[in-house]
Write a structure and sequence with these properties.
By secondary structure, this protein is of the alpha+beta class. The protein is 35% helix and 26% strand. Helix 4 packs antiparallel against helix 5 and helix 7 packs across helix 8.
Length: 446
């Protein structure tokens, strides 16, 4: 097993990884920008190294500085966390070339899934259902119009290098194709440096349902159930739950079995997530995330399995500690993302946390690097805490969540806690009756 792990991240996820290391008897190295001198992840780690000024490109994305920090502290392995370098195939390859273990999948699998066209092609080969669409990248508007006629309108033009909704355009007619394709290409080129696009049938009211997988690359593959991540605004998830209230037992079984079988065939190693759109009783693969995700704790709450611990064990060459039969998914879990933002305008709200009180009690977990007196810097993602609640049933989980939201005090900055309080009182949410567009309509009518 590793003796020392460098955590190439900040905030709550750096803390999350530190906790898993500590429980395994592994020492930790924090890296931080000059804006994070007083950050909790730096305080708790055994050692820390300053890797640059506040802008992420000069610090948390600074590969030479991170590799140097690993070298001078004698770390055995690097955990990338999420965001930043977590899905950089080049970073994964360089970590290994410099003699450190990368706590994540192979650079080849990161690269395969990072390009949405090669990812979709791999999914088809693995027997995963995908959204009907162009068989690869489109050369020009004429080729797109050809495919659209075959698929049937409306269609969605998507960026091959993309994700997160950038470089995406709906076209409802051949006339709209002529503007949608160049618009998507331009945005994709500007954002990802890759203007290639492809085409899919547009699903008007799907849910976003994803499957959490753990695989050891030695034949061991398990799933930890699915998560419903349909509650989002501008492609930012706000609240996630497991299991999905939309699926019956037969649909769930079908989805989880097909995802697990496919990942086994792929020979994938580490934690990963298969994202699907679900509409009218059918599943369509859209993307795979080759990293730990923000919402991973809800899967941990229903399974009792520590995903980061398993990632570390797998990276050290150990086989999975569980077979599927050992995994008992129990009860219901919900995560509320607490952002340092105005709960109505979503304007960022960095600043000093003048008073802080965390909810507790049975089934309540808070993953956060906040403390009283901490100054939330303006340079990074606005996620400052995750409130994760578990209950024996969805209703028990909801009652507990309402109670925990009442207890949570974060003063001095604005947070999205009041939004979550409105959400857990909304009849459609209480009934589990929502799709990927529901939250934006809810915010618009309030
Ligand atoms: C789609 C879709 C409808 N039809 N694909 C958005 C981000 C990217 N990861 C995939 N996305 C979508 N792909 C087809 N064929 C609708 C979306 C989409 C979406 C997906 C998941 C969660 C939130 C979303 C919000 C808007 C659009």
């Amino acid at each position: 097993m590793f003796e020392k792990v460098l955590i190439a991240n900040r905030g709550e996820i750096a803390l999350r990884i530190h906790r898993a290391c500590r429980e395994m008897g592994i020492r930790t190295v924090a890296v931080h920008s000059t804006a994070d001198d007083n950050a909790m992840h730096v305080r708790l780690a055994d050692e820390s190294v300053c890797i640059g000024p506040p802008p992420a490109r000069d610090s948390y994305l600074n590969i030479p500085a991170i590799l140097s920090a690993a070298a001078i502290t004698g770390a055995d392995a690097i955990h990338p966390g999420l965001g930043f370098l977590a899905e950089s195939a080049d970073f994964a390859a360089m970590v290994e070339e410099h003699g450190f273990a990368f706590i994540g999948p192979s650079a080849e699998h990161i690269r395969l899934m990072g390009d949405k066209v090669t990812a979709k092609r791999a999914a088809v080969e693995l027997g995963i259902p995908v959204v009907p669409g162009s068989d690869g990248r489109l050369a020009d508007v004429a080729a797109a119009a050809d495919w659209a006629a075959r698929i049937g309108y409306p269609v969605l033009v998507k960026a091959a290098g993309g994700g997160g909704g950038r470089g995406m355009r709906v076209a409802r007619s051949a006339g709209e194709i002529a503007t949608a394709v160049p618009a998507a290409q331009g945005e994709a080129k500007a954002f990802f440096g890759n203007g290639e696009v492809y085409l899919e049938r547009y699903l008007a009211k799907p849910r976003h349902i994803e499957v959490q997988i753990l695989a050891d690359g030695q034949g061991g593959v398990i799933h930890l159930g699915e998560r419903d991540c349909s509650l989002q605004r501008k492609h930012q998830k706000i609240l996630e739950e497991t299991p999905s209230p939309a699926l019956n037992a037969a649909e769930r079984q079908q989805l989880l079995a097909l995802a697990t079988a496919a990942i086994g065939k792929l020979g994938y190693k580490s934690a990963g997530t298969l994202e699907f759109l679900y509409q009218d009783g059918a599943f369509f693969f859209i993307e795979m995330n080759t990293r730990l995700q923000v919402e991973h704790p809800i899967s941990e709450m229903v399974s009792g399995i520590d995903l980061v611990r398993e990632q570390i064990r797998i990276a050290a060459g150990a086989p999975l500690g569980y077979r599927q039969d050992d995994v008992k998914l129990t009860g219901h879990a919900i995560e509320c993302r607490v952002n340092a933002e105005n709960p109505e305008t979503f304007a960022p709200s960095p600043g000093c946390v003048t008073s802080y009180h965390v909810p507790g009690g049975l089934g309540v977990r808070v993953d956060s690097a906040l403390y009283q007196g901490y100054i939330v810097p303006p340079h990074y993602d606005s996620l400052v805490a995750k409130l994760i609640v578990h209950g024996a049933s969805r209703n028990e989980c909801l009652m507990r969540l309402r109670r925990a939201l009442e207890e949570y005090v974060i003063a001095g900055i604005e947070t999205t806690i009041p939004l979550h309080q409105r959400l857990v009182a909304a009849p459609d949410f209480v009934n589990g009756d929502y799709d990927i567009h529901w939250l934006e309509r809810f915010l618009a009518r309030a």
